[in-house]
Amino acid sequence: MNRCYRERVENIEITSDPDGTRCALEFTVLGTYLNTDEGPPEVRGQTYHRPGGAFFELRAGKVVRISNYYHLQDWLTQVGTEA
What is the pLDDT of residues 11-33, one digit of tens each? Predict the structure, then answer.
């Protein structure tokens, strides 16, 4: 991952339910495609911004499940390919 992409996360928003067993994060990943990865097209200096979300389930103060979501087709379009 680090060989092919440089990313930073911005615009983080966190919400949780009243009893603290679930929380959600919304964020934007700003990235640069550094080296050709298996699947996406050849590197030509592509940059991208990818909105995403992560949802956490907590028990006894520990994360027991994480679900991440983002729009794959949008990212593929930004780096120059169609899925």
Answer: 999 999 999 999 999 999 999 99
Nearest in space to 16 (alpha carbons), one of 28, 7, 26, 8: 26
What's the 3-state SS for the chain?
CCCCEEEEEEEEEEEECCCCCEEEEEEEEEEEECCCCCCCCCCCCCEEEEEEEEEEEEECCEEEEEEEEECHHHHHHHHCCCC
What residue ranges define each of the domains in the chain, with the CATH number in brackets?
5-78 (3.10.450.50)
d(CA 75, CA 83): 10
Instruction: Round to whole Å and give the CA distance between 30 and 20.
Output: 29
Q: What pTM did the predictor assign?
A: 0.77
